[in-house]
Structure formats: C-alpha cells, structure tokens
Request: fold
Amino acid sequence: MDKDKPVIQVGDAWMSFEGKTPSQPIHVLERVSFDVRPGEFVCVVGPSGCGKSTLLNIVGGFLKETRGEVRVEGKAVNGPDPGRIFVFQENGVFPWLTVEENIGFGLFSRPAEERASRVTHYIQMVGLTGFEKCYPRELSGGMRQRVEIARALAAEARVLYMDEPFGALDFITRLKMRSDLVRIWQAEHKTIIFVTHDIEEAVQLADRVFVMSRRPATIQETVVIDLPRPRDLDSPGYLAARDKIFAVMGMDAHGGGKPAINKVSEFIDLQNV
Amino acid sequence: MNGGSSAEQRRAMLMRIFLPLIVGVVFLFSWHFAVRFSRSDLFPTPLDVLRGGIELFQKGLLFKYIVASLFRVTWGFFAAVLVGVPLGLTLGWFRPAFYAFNPVIQVLRPISPIAWIPVAILWFGIDDTAPIFLIFLASVFPIAVSSMAAVQNMQAVYIRAARNFGLGGLILFRRVVLPAALPQIITGIRIALGIAWLVVVAAEMIAVNSGLGYLIIDARNAGKRYDLVVAGMVMIGLIGLGLDSLIRQLERFDEVKWGYGQR
Reply:
C-alpha cells in the first residue's frame, strides 16, 4: 500500500439517532473529519457520552453515518471487515472456546498447520503461553483482553479499532496492558484507533490524540505527540501534551486534579513502563 | 478445590451426609407413627410401602411399569427436543418468524397437557401414542421458549465480533449463535424433562394400561392397595431425581459451563 495515502479517511461525517419523537433527532456527531496514516496510533478522547464510541463504530462498519464520507483502505465502509478488527471493552472473547480456539477463530478458512503456527506465535506475543487450553472464565480480565487482541492480530487485521479496551481493568493491569500494546504495535505495524476517556492513557499511547467536544461532538483539537517510546512520563514534552489536552477539554491540570496525576506519573516511572 | 484444613473438609462431608440422613429418618418415623396413632386401615406405613414394592418387584410388574413409563417419556421428550430446539432457535433469530408464530405459541403454552387428554384419546386412541403426544406437548414449549430466549438474550458483542471476522449465515449460526445459546437451551431441556416426567404419570392414569401412573390408579381401583399406590409414588420420585441428575451432567461440559455462573 502507498505509504503516504491515508488508511482511514473521514470527511465531514454526521451522525444522528432517532429521538423520542421523529422531529427531535439526537445529534451525536457533527462535521467530523480526519485522516489516519498507515501504521499510525491514534487516540480519541473526549467527555463521556460525547460519541467517541459512535465514531469508532461508524469507522468499524457497525453503524452507518447519517451524512458524510467514511473510507477505509480506499473503499467506502459498508459493514465490518476481517481486515479491520474491533476490540470491545466488554470483551468479545467467546466463553465456549479455549484460549487457542479463540485466537484461531478468525482463521477458520486457513489450513490447520498455518492456523496452529499463527496461534502459537500470537499466544506468545501477548504472553499467554501455558494458558492455551484454558477457558476465558479461568482467566483474569486483563488476560481475556490479551486473548481478544491476539485474536485480532492472528487474523491478520491491518487495522485495530479499540473501544476503551482497558476500561474495565484495574489500575496496575491497565499500565501493563498499555506498555504491552505499544510493544506489540511496534512489532506488528498495525494502524490503531484507540478510544479512551483517560487522557494519561492517550498521551502514553498515541502518535496523535483527537480531542472531541461535547455532544454534538466534533474533533476540537488534534494534539501531535512526537515523543519516543517507551515514554518518559515526567518529561516536559509528555507533561505539555497532557496539559494541552486537559486545557482543550476545559480542565485545569494544575488545579484540583494535579496531585493525583503527579502520583500516577511517579508510579508509572517506578514501574519503568 | 477450595483450600482449608482436612478437619474442616471432614466436617463439611459429615454435614452433607448426616443432615439429610437425619431429616429422612425423622420423616419416616413421623410418617410411621402418624399412621399408627391415626389407626388408619388404608394408609400404609413406610414398612408396608417397602413390602408392597418388594411384592411388585417379585411379580415383575415394577420393572415392567418403569420401562413402560420411561419408554413414553423418552419418545415424547426426544421428539420435543428435536422440534423445540430448532423451532426456538429459528424464532429467536429471525424477527419475522418470531412475529408470526410467537402469539400462537404463547396461547398454546399455558394450556395444561391434562386438558389435552380428551383430544389425545380422540386422535390417537388409548395406545402408547396418546401419552407420548401429551409428553411431547408438555415439553416442547419450555424447550422452544427457552431456546428462543437464549438467542434473543445473547450478548450482542459475540455476534458483532463474529461478523467482524467475516462470519455470516449458517456458519455464524453454528459457530456462535448455537454455542452462545447452549447453556440456556440445556436449562430449558432440563425443566422440560421434569415436566415430561410429571405428565407421563397423569397421562397413564387415563390413557393406557401400563406404567407407573397406571399402577397408582389401578392399585387404588382394584382393592384399595394404598401400599402399592405409595410405592408407585416413591418410584416416581426416585426416577425423577435420577433423570434430573442425569441431565445435569450436560451442564458440566466445558463448552457450556460458562453459562451457569460460579458453582
């Protein structure tokens, strides 16, 4: 694929849902436009309920925009596609399949040998070696998200859409998942759109952060984070990017929120994420 | 297994064996003395029931009647599974089918199988077909309705994930819809088997001349042999328990265990 041609092109997308009465539709998205380059890691942040997930579902093909143009890999999006896999917050791992069966799920049309080798490879990549025969109910929440990520990678998805994938996990697990996701992304060169309400998370992960406004939402600001990875969470660049996003969202990072945030940074630094 | 000292485990074991045993013994003694003090001529003591059961066994009737009842339940119940599961899955998956057929099902469902007895006799006479039909009727609705609900209540995320991987049509159905619905389908099947066993007894009281239900009504009519009546009742209870624990084995498979919470 052309290195410079965007994988994802969203042009003036609008989205409204039916309201209680037909005359009062609920406008969720307005004038959303952006491009994502191949291999780019983009985070979408915004106030809760602003339509971040709606946007991701439109790009992922699960919802149809009311107006506008959404093109992925050069073609108008018309439903989900095996080359672009969604990772759900509520965990879409199938509980009736073992870890290895889940990870091999998208490979049903491949020869058994290829399937097995890919499954083994990605089980190792997400750090689940030894749990191949386990069922999801025997795993922790973080491990189940690892299974879901491995399932997407094994199916050779070129694009990952991640909808608050670590939202249900505890704090320490989230930190570990983030650093592992960066490692995997660097190894696999996937394009990732990652929706989160956690600004720290976005700044740790993304090449660019799209900050969305309240509903009806649009992209209010795009913050470029040009910092080497793994990121030093006390570096001036990191703090500046974080504060900028806070400011765009109408919050003062040096106000009430600051002590807690500082603690987080110190903690992360200790963990050497 | 849960950790804990072996003394603790032993105590739990004793509780699980001795508590029900004590309740059972108290129950039998209360029964025995209640009959004695009331000086009933007809109602049997536990010992009379045991003797009655042995008598039935020696005559070869006990085994014969159990087989007859189980035969009818097996046919009626398996026919209900074969019809009910596909029917329920179809109604749960296809909206138009649901709108078309659900009202009819909801009207037929609350009609007690007992109410169908005259109709069954009219249609099938008094051979084995009538009770098999009644058992089928009694168990097909719980199976169909639970299969339907299983599909409708399935977590949407499984369908979305499967579609994302390019699954559709029958493959989606077989690889995702069916396994996702299976735990609840099995629960419906288990309930239906209990109902089937209840109904076989009722059906045999009217429609045929063999089986445990027939034994009960026949023992009463031909000489007020209440020891045999109660012996029949006890057998029904024991076999019902046996059938339920048999079908519960289905819930232990790894493919469906996830659907039953923490046990």
In short: The CA atoms of residues 209 and 223 of chain A lie 5 Å apart. The radius of gyration of chain A is 19 Å. Residues 87-157 of chain A form one domain.
